[in-house]
């Protein structure tokens, strides 16, 4: 039944599918359906040319699938938004902004763990055992902990 319906509608299936996909691209986020919509429209154009081998819906479906893959790959290669270098690469990475900063320990480092205040935030720190009030510098951030050492 389904093959008969596909054969009865013929080339117009691809035109309608292509236009529906292009419309869906307008109302959904991202850029993906446009390439599949273009593949459907190109399939309809090739089918309109009347080439003998493209008359069956099976060949048209195969052509559509191949064109979809090709268009998606081309679209991703040439139209994918490039990662742009920011003038503030650490803007939303607060812990990474603290690397190299100095402060004093709010709570002593005992058994490798303590707390230090940066601006209005109390951060967990790790490092050698040090008393509260010691001036420290942040060396790195790893697993939710600022790794610090004493400033000498």
Provide structural commentary.
There is one protein chain. This protein has 152 residues and is an alpha+beta fold. It is 44% helix and 23% strand. It has 5 helices and 5 strands, in the order αααααβββββ. It has a 5-stranded mixed beta barrel with strand order 1-2-3-5-4. β1 (102-110) and β2 (113-118) form a beta hairpin. The longest helix is centred in the middle third of the chain and has 23 residues, at 57-79. The N and C termini lie far apart (84 Å). The model has no long low-confidence stretch (mean pLDDT 85).
Task: Provide a short characterization of the protein structure.
The chain has helices spanning 2-9, 12-27, 33-48, 57-79, 94-97; strands spanning 102-110, 113-118, 121-126, 135-142, 145-150.
Relevant terms:
152 residues; alpha+beta; 5-stranded mixed β-barrel; 5 strands; rod-shaped
Task: Flag low-confidence runs.
Answer: none
Tally of DSSP β-strands:
5
Q: Quote the average pLDDT.
A: 85
Largest sheet: 5 strands, mixed, barrel
* Backbone structural class: alpha+beta
Sheet-strand content, in percent, reads 15-25%
Tell me, briefly, the overall form. Answer: rod-shaped
Largest beta sheet: strand ordering? 1-2-3-5-4
Distance between the termini: 84 Å
Amount of helix: 40-55%
């Amino acid at each position: 039944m389904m093959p008969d319906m596909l054969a009865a509608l013929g080339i117009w299936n691809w035109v309608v599918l292509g236009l529906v996909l292009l419309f869906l691209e307008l109302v959904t986020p991202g850029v993906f359906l446009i390439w599949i919509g273009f593949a459907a429209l190109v399939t309809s154009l090739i089918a309109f040319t009347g080439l003998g081998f493209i008359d069956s819906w099976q060949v048209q479906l195969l052509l559509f699938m191949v064109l979809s893959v090709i268009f998606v790959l081309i679209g991703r290669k040439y139209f994918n938004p490039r990662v742009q270098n920011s003038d503030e690469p650490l803007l939303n990475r607060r812990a990474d902004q603290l690397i190299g900063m100095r402060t004093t320990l709010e709570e002593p480092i005992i058994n490798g763990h303590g707390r230090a205040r940066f601006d209005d935030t109390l951060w967990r720190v790790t490092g050698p055992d040090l008393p509260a009030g010691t001036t420290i510098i942040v060396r790195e951030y790893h697993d939710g902990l600022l790794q610090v050492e004493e400033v000498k």
